[in-house]
Write a structure and sequence with these properties.
By secondary structure, this protein is mostly helical. Helix content is 65%, strand content 2%. It has 14 helices and two strands, in the order H-E-E-H-H-H-H-H-H-H-H-H-H-H-H-H. A two-stranded antiparallel sheet has the order 1-2. A hairpin with a 5-residue loop joins strand 1 and strand 2.
Length: 306
């Protein structure tokens, strides 16, 4: 009589053991629940820290003028006055807030597009064109990335004052189209995502360098979107340069205009109007990130070479 061997069955206690995972060294390790809980607690703490000011901004914009400094600052008031506050925001002082929003869009969108194009072209040239002094040029770009922007504010003011362009649109737009970080990112991305064989095949087919760059720009799309987003946010939130360059309120962006309203100490523009203006000024930045997020994620695979 022969006995058949049956495979061992997993007990319920074994099934409830922590799932092992393989480390980089090849050894099997188990995930500690305490470490998961600690990481979750730390991330929750950081999320609350960053989202709490946004929550206060949203709640404060829904309150009436007399409820701003009364009651709980992190909860809604007795009356929901958000739409009334928005209507007052666009009516106060002849609707100057609409002009500030338009100025910010012109500075941020125009400067972001031009700076992205220039940075991608410079990074592509540094990555794919060998020329004497290329390393020194790239080192200068890295030094410019580490240089704080406020250091250049006074020299820029003196330059534009000498050329007579102070208190004009170009005094803010021209410095906004320079992005050393964009050049650095474009150079790194072009060196890793654009194959030399693609450039050589384009030259063999008789294509010019600008046409080859136009083809390679499709592979650099994720980097270009990243540069545009960073530059858009940097220009939109910039305060020091426009406040130095612009004295005409019709040319000021929304950041400078809101600070000017805040310095009025609540009259003739109320604090609720200023807070509502700050909330409305955040909407274009959020909309830009949401609209470009899908393109950003899809473009991460465009650099694959078949």
């Amino acid at each position: 009589m022969t006995a058949t061997l049956q495979p061992p069955t997993r007990t319920a206690s074994v099934a409830r053991e922590p799932r092992p995972r393989r480390s980089r060294a090849g050894a099997l390790t188990t995930v500690n629940p305490a470490s998961r809980l600690f990481v979750l607690a730390v991330m929750t703490l950081f999320a609350v820290y960053f989202l709490l000011p946004v929550w206060w901004l949203v709640v404060s914009a829904t309150k009436g003028t007399g409820e701003m400094f009364s009651g709980n600052g992190f909860w809604f008031g007795r009356h929901f006055a958000l739409f009334d506050n928005i209507r007052t925001l666009f009516e106060v002082q002849g609707g100057i807030y609409s002009r500030w929003l338009l100025n910010s869009l012109l500075y941020a969108v125009g400067g972001g597009i031009v700076s992205t194009l220039l940075a991608s072209m410079c990074g592509y040239a540094l990555a794919k064109f060998p020329f004497p002094g290329r390393g020194a040029v790239f080192g200068t770009v890295l030094a410019a990335v580490l240089l704080p922007a406020p250091v250049l504010a006074i020299p820029l003011y003196l330059v534009f004052s000498y050329t007579g362009t102070i208190n004009t649109f170009w005094a803010v737009f021209v410095p906004s189209i320079v992005s050393p970080f964009g050049v650095y990112l474009s150079r790194i991305y072009a060196a890793s995502s654009i194959p030399d064989a693609l450039i050589e095949s384009g030259r063999i087919d008789g294509a010019g360098e600008m046409r080859i760059f136009a083809m390679c720009a499709r592979l650099m799309a994720p980097a270009m979107v990243t540069i545009f987003l960073f530059q858009f946010v940097a220009i939109w939130t910039n305060f020091l340069l426009p406040s130095l360059m612009l004295a005409d309120t019709s040319l000021q962006p929304v950041t400078v205009g809101l600070v000017g309203w805040r310095e009025l100490q609540g009259y003739p523009v109320s604090y609720t109007t200023v807070v509502t203006g700050a909330l409305v000024s955040v909407v274009p930045v959020v909309a830009m990130f949401v609209s470009l997020q899908s393109f950003w994620s899809k473009g991460l695979v465009t650099g694959a070479v078949k």
